[in-house]
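Hi R.,

Here's the chain you asked about this morning:
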Amino acid sequence: MSDKGDIIQKMAKEEEKKDVLRLPAELLYVSELEALGIEDKKEDKPAGWQLSPRAVLKFIVGGKSGKTDISPKYMGHNRLVEIAIATLLTDRSLLLTGEPGTAKSWLSENLAAAICGDSAKVIQGTAGTSEEHIRYSWNYAMLLANGPSNEALIKSPIYRAMETGSIARFEEISRCASEVQDALISIMSEKTIAIPELGREIPAARGFSIIATANTRDRGVNDMSAALKRRFNIIVLPSPADLETEVSIVSKRVREISANYKLKAALPSNDAVEKIVTVFRELRRGATLDDRQKLKSPSGVISTAEAISLITNSMALAASFGNGKISDEDLAAGLQGAVVKDEDKDKIVWKEYLENVMKKRGAAWRGLYNTCSEINKI
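And here is the predicted structure, written out as tokens:
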């Protein structure tokens, strides 16, 4: 591409960033991807890939590319990321599973952004997802007027990924009905989509693959068939291994989200983040961090993603109705909403935690304890 073409492309990307609530990973980290692309020019790349596997790994786990710092997108076991990338080099698709908030969707999006520069070919699995969302559908006005034609065909994200040799993402696959899930089996086996109305089949171009995610909390809702599972390489993403890792993840994501939302509040102190993460980890595992005391767990999801959301919301409270610094009142309001999902059961669980754990932690926790206790009585 000419210098003028590069300038036009960069201007277009900058224009896309304006006034957008949430940027896709390929635009959010465009400078990092460009730096990796320059460094990676001489490396062999698989068909349909814009970066080599090693460059994709660096984009996900972080590092240095020339003078550009590559921020880590996933902080966990690097070997799991290597296995995920290696899977996408083969004819098998990838299924990321784990507890809520273990960065399954985030990893899926960033893998697609690094591999093919397009993370937007997404199917969101719900009870209302139909087989048409997976294969194709029709513009029925055109279909009735002129019959089946290319112009009347509405291509699904998977259809478009097969045509272009890129990655399609299927979020929360286990939320879909079993018969809808099984529509994937022939696509993943034969690597084609048949369109009998037009008398033809669409073969997948090289580079096509699917990254699906499934929540282990949804097990039993719509269990995946053994036939479908066999066509995926399954990777279980664990919760952060220790307190320090989870604090780092939460702090990093809060910093990125607050910058994107332009929140006019100071970033939380490490002490504040550590307190929230400590509460979440203890309630999630049903025991204090030192394992000296067993605890009851609330009915809701106490995940890393919830902790990020809680602190981001606390920043919004502090910016809009406080002095711009996160207070114990801001954190307590978020904790109440995060923990007490079931008014009858969770309120008791939360009260026991406050009285038996938080109250006994001394002066450093006193302000948060007092505020949480007052809100829990309302």
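One quick note: The longest strand covers residues 209-215.

Cheers,
M.
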